[in-house]
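Your task
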Amino acid sequence: MKKYILIFLSCLFIPFSVNATSVVMDMDSKRVLSGSAENETKLIASTTKILTAMVVINNTDIKNIVTVDENVLKSFGSGIYIEIGEKISVEDLLYGLLLRSGNDAAIALACYVGGSMEGFSILMNSLASSIGMTNSNFINASGLENEKGDGNTSTAKDMAILMSYAMQNEIFKRITSTKHHIVKTNYKTYDWYNKNKLLSMYKYTTGGKTGFTKKAYRTLVTSASKDNKNLVVVTLDEANDFDKHKYLYETTFKKYKKVKVVDASTFLKSEGLKVNKDIDMLLSDDEIEKVEVDVVYTDDVTNRVGYVNVSLNDVVYYKEDIYLYDKKEDSFFYKLKSKILSIFK
């Protein structure tokens, strides 16, 4: 009996890396739910390819055909082993990029979209900045370090912001969640399986990207959804990354509830006003009473009359416009607003 108890207890304590950084983020609000040194800058290896994919998706038609050129000869490390002269769609290169972490796919896509790796890196940094990745820098599309040892750097928090952004895109979402994909080109047939083991290990997983170099060590970005709760987990320099992700998902899903803080069907309806959608927020039991819902009225002359802010600990996580419920002249708020505006004419 003691033997079985020891085995059971050993399963409860999974050794995680002391140098690792991590974060759990609510995908919808971009709120950090928990983290460990989540703002520390580290090398990110092939998790870079999430950004690579989004730059490609944003800048070209995925049905376009790419003719592989001599640039792929610069590739080393993991690859899908495409050849010079091979014709393959952007979409299939994205599968090779995200499922198999093909560095040759990254080069082919970067040169096709950006004209060169340098040109593509400019697009990468521009997109990263535009979505709020404030502590990141990208020098290539693959995530490999160069001969000087320099590579793409980011933080666990920034990478969670990136994954939250990417998962809003249906093309990315479809590809990253695919376990198996077959590709036929003018040269050969490829049979690819996703390297993201969490897709098979944890049934709530919706996507992700693995990464590894000797210098960056293991990096992993994943997403999962359960009971309408959508999370992103990032670990950098974590040896037991898949186990860590599963553990963080389970503990976070258990701790947080999806709470409707603004009900669009009733909110301000008695005042002749409305918001167009509910506002739901992931909250722990002790946070529910701390959420603040503030209504701000503006002098906008359109049907929009203000907005509602939903905040926690003085940080605004949701902002939704408030509109007149209708424009009928017998609406109390419509009459009041018209009278106020007429005074200042």
Q: What stands out?
A: The first helix runs from residue 2 to 12. The chain has ten helices and 17 strands. The two ends are 86 Å apart (CA to CA). The domain at 258-343 is CATH 2.30.140.30 (Spermidine Synthase; Chain: A, domain 2).
